[in-house]
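Model it.
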Amino acid sequence: MRPKTIGLIAHPGKAGSPALVRAVREEFARASVRVLVESATAALVNDSGGYALGAIAREADLLVVLGGDGTILSVVGQLGDQMKPIFGINVGSLGFLTCASSSDHTEAVRCIVQGEMVFSQRSLLEVTVRSESAPVTITGLNDAVFSRGEMSRLIRLETAVNGEPLTEFNADGLIISTPTGSTAYSLSAGGPIVAPDSGALVITPICPHVLTNRSIIVGEDAVIDVLATGRDHPVYLTVDGREAIRLDPGVTVTVRKAPIELPLAAMPGVSFFGVVRQKLKWRGSNL
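Modeled.
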């Protein structure tokens, strides 16, 4: 893939973002590649000619995101059905989703221009809140998290898979993650690492009261229903760390694999297992 039009989006709060935006834009200009700069990103470099993200998604062949994994999650959440391939350059150290550091931006741009990228098709979540009013559907790349908010109380979450009861988790919360999200909050809560191309979903309780409650991996076609059964304490739903939604008693949340996927770009030689080794500092046995 040799993109003709690039969409450029940066994290506005990162200290190194303005300099990196200028440098990346200049590199693409030298290669005669058209660049559409997102509005808030353009403001970082005192440019008033930015574009809305929706307009960029309609025209761009590839989105280059400057920031961290959280920046990519934010962009994915805003794209919805207009999902486009994403290439992440980290303003800082290498993340699980970003494939190049800011110091390697010149090589990253060369790789993009020459069409040397490799792509991983990442599963997305379709999270539907079935309230009494119209259902609300949210798209996520990492996870859907059910939590107790600020209350130091356990919550009860009745969970079913494909219509069959699984259990009622009595816990601090529950995480339903994609393979991509398996290296995020789910991993911290004791969940397994799942390879990105597996397509499976992971259900991981957070600090369960019953110690035999453990993570369970379900198939990519699974439909997971979660109902907050306790009526004394609120339950909150957060998708990819975005603003929490308070769930009223009796509201069911359905989580399944979305019909669309994210083509996540990487530079040649950057692999999921290589990133895992680096980020988790797996260096082999000391024995």
